[in-house]
Amino acid sequence: MAVSVLIPTPMRKQTNERDTVEVNAGTIATMVAELTALFPGIEKRLVDDKGDLRRFINFYVNEEDIRFLDGKDTPIKDGDAVSIVPAIAGGC
Amino acid sequence: MSKVLGMRCRECGEEYPMNPVHVCELCFGPLEVVLDWELLEGKLTREKIEKGPPSMWRYWDLLPVEGPPTVGRNVGFTPLVKAERLGREWGLKNLYIKNDAVNHPTLSFKDRVVALALTKAREFGYKTVACASTGNLANSVAAHAAEGGFQSYIFIPDNLEQGKVLGTLVYGANVIAVSGNYDEVNRLCAEAGDKYGWGFVNINLRPYYGDGSKTFGYEIAEQLGWKAPDHIVTPCAGGSLISKTYKGLNELNRLNLLENGGKDGISTKMYAAQAKGCSPITTAIKAGHDMFRPQKPNTIAKSIAIGNPADGHIAIETVRKSGGWAEDVTDDEVIEGIRLLGRTEGIFTETAGGVTVAVAQKLAEQGYFGENETVVISITGNGLKTLEAISGKLGSTVHIQPNLNSLAEALQTEKLLASV
């Protein structure tokens, strides 16, 4: 078992069109590091110049927004699903 | 020659051709349509616009479509009502209601964004359209899809008001009720969006959808005699309308079409209105933050209950840049706002409108508006869609028998005596 990460369409050029990538348990931060090792170039999509997660991307662990959890330090364990989702418009 | 040059990332400036994509591949920032201003400047005149149809399409030159509208030809150009009686309550002599509660055909401002998005969807060759919605967008996408002969899939939170559910089903749409709040519906749609090849109005068609809201700003200015108002109060959910209204006014200024414009820009101040039960944008503005913290919504104003607003940062930036402010109100104040607008102006708005009226009242009490300044309240939806919210809160009817004695007796009761 591992953690499955759902890759959104606008990021699939970086993952050779793969829509799901498996990473080891750890935290959102270790996930970003592992994705970067697998797919160089993905880091600057996920993280801004200051090293913060980009503000227009939402990260969810098992459907919960990580901003309601521990942000970058949110733990992820085997069997968890992480979604990376661009922000979406709605309402007014 | 096309009036549209392409799209540009609002965050990092990367440029893209006109395609059904909505986020920047580099930074995930939102993409915005770039108009060819060289083609427009000096050529688009007030006279040309005024000769256009009495709909949002009189501003066709400023909208990102190549051909004529293929759905929603009658959308927009809703009344800008001078609110004399409400203005007197608040000590304001130039208060106006921009009344999209009577927008054609589904009674909310969403008809603007959908008419544009589905016209664009047809240009892109989509046969099926979809959306994630808090209700008004659902109604509008379903109606315009029916008009245009599209298949439609509408995703809604499963706790929506009946009026909004029935007002979607009636158009023959496939309505999918997701157990969860709007933010959860949205996440699912973002994940599903690419999978099925649909034109997702608020996802892959978002840059075009968003530009429909500019017409709200264009109309306010034109209806004020080509003047940008001093203040505009606008409800915020995803945070798009407030910045697009402002953008619309600035575009008219750029084209030199405003009486009170100029090189230094317009002086309109934008105010964000939210319910306290879902106030990520107003909370950030009042605390002086550039970033909002997402919230789990809990308010009767369901149409604007978005805890994770996609354009939240842009809304915050717009308010700050314009010199405006923000307020939020309780659910009780929302109901009072709906009643106040009904009682003084004869306009029945939905809960989001109640939020806007109640916030405008708070801002007026706090002294943000000068007595003679022009203040516009953005009423974005119709009260008949959210009857549950006010049910049991407006008093009751007076029951009588069909005879004069019964009527005379009733007129003597405390409740009716005052008005005889």
How would you sum up this structure, described in words?
- The complex is a heterodimer of chains A (92) and B (420).
- By secondary structure, chain A is α+β, with helices and mostly antiparallel strands.
- Chain A has helices spanning 28-38, 43-46, and strands spanning 3-6, 20-23, 26-27, 57-61, 64-65, 75-76, 81-86.
- Chain A has a single domain (3-86), classed as Roll (Ubiquitin-like (UB roll)).
- In chain A, strands 2-1-7-4-5 form a five-stranded mixed sheet, with helices on one face. Chain A has a two-stranded antiparallel sheet with strand order 3-6.
- In chain A, strand 4 and strand 5 (64-65) form a beta hairpin.
- Among the domains of chain B are: 1-40; 80-106 and 211-390, Rossmann fold.
- Chain B is 39% helix and 15% strand.
- Chain B is built from 17 helices and 13 strands.
- Chain B has helices spanning 37-40, 46-50, 84-90, 110-124, 136-148, 162-169, 182-196, 206-212, 214-223, 240-254, 280-287, 312-322, 331-345, 351-365, 387-390, 404-411, 414-417; strands spanning 4-9, 15-16, 31-35, 80-82, 94-99, 128-132, 151-157, 174-178, 199-200, 231-235, 269-275, 326-329, 374-379.
- Chain B has a six-stranded mixed sheet with strand order 4-5-13-10-11-12, sandwiched between helices. In chain B, strands 8-7-6-9 form a four-stranded parallel sheet.
- In chain B, helix 6 (162-169) links the parallel strand 7 (151-157) and strand 8.
- In chain B, helix 5 (136-148) packs parallel to helix 6 (162-169) and helix 10 (240-254) crosses helix 12.
- Chain B is globular and about 75 Å long.
- At the A-B interface, strand 4 and strand 7 of A face helix 7 and helix 8 of B.
